[in-house]
Design a protein that fits this description.
This protein is α/β, with parallel strands linked by helices. It folds into 2 domains: about 5-115, Resolvase, N-terminal catalytic domain (Rossmann fold); about 135-215, no CATH class. The chain is built from 9 helices and 5 strands. It has helices at about 5-10, 25-35, 60-65, 85-100, 120-155, 170-180, 185-195, 200-205, 210-215, and strands at about 10-20, 40-45, 75, 100-105, 110. It has a 5-stranded mixed beta sheet with strand order 2-1-3-4-5, with helices on both faces.
Length: about 220
């Protein structure tokens, strides 16, 4: 095989994790393509929560390890797609880099590449991996805490109490907005990304427990 042949076989793989009925694989692919990625293959796990299973334990996550080769690019919406927590995300990114795979994110267009050999660049890259992995875990824990608080608040009201107006946002939109807010995205950017109004985004930002409670009350 010639060098040109090897270059032609390099591929860009999108890994999507769809854990709720409101999320779709097509939506995640559209987001990636809108960010400038040319996707060759989509690998997706459906109905899988990222907080309960390591990437290699997910059916299609295992497929990634067999599919990706040196020179390939793995695209994910954010690094939290790659593991349950800080250790999982960090280990997964480093394992793919050892294999010569480049990891890129749709959000913030981050790139993690194991090709660099210059010590200072390696140090900066490794520090960034650690920071992003820690951010992913912190956001996951904050989301779970808000969910627990919202459910407890809804239970305290009692099933016979008036549930209030049905939320104008889905659980997927709520999670996406919280995710982007944690990354200091602008309100206009979040509105465009999620399809929510600015007023709704401000409510989710300022009253996350009440916003979660509304979803819980309506069993959304």
């Amino acid at each position: 095989m010639t060098l040109l042949d090897g270059m032609m076989t390099m591929k860009t793989v999108l890994y999507a994790r769809v854990s709720t009925a409101d999320q779709t694989i097509d939506h995640q692919r559209t987001q990636a393509e809108a960010a400038g990625f040319k996707i060759d293959v989509v690998v997706a796990d459906q109905g899988v929560s990222g907080v309960h299973a390591r990437l290699i334990e997910r059916p299609q996550g295992r497929r990634l390890f067999d599919l990706l080769r040196a020179g390939d690019t793995l695209v994910v919406r954010w690094v939290d797609r790659l593991g349950r927590n800080y250790a999982d995300v960090s280990d997964t990114i480093r394992e793919f880099m050892r294999r010569g795979v480049v990891i890129r994110t749709v959000i913030n267009n981050m790139t993690f590449d194991g090709a660099t050999k210059e010590p200072m660049r390696q140090a900066v890259r490794d520090a960034l991996i650690a920071f992003m992995a820690a951010t992913a875990q912190a956001q996951a824990e904050a989301t779970k805490e808000a969910q627990r608080a919202g459910i407890d608040h809804a239970k305290a009201l009692g099933d016979r109490r008036y549930k209030g107006r049905k939320p104008s946002y889905s659980r997927a939109q709520y999670a996406a907005a919280r995710d982007l807010l944690a990354r200091d995205a602008g309100i206009s950017v979040i509105a465009k990304e999620t399809g929510l109004t600015r007023q709704t985004i401000y409510r989710i930002k300022d009253e996350p427990v009440a916003a979660e409670a509304a979803l819980a009350a309506w069993r959304l």
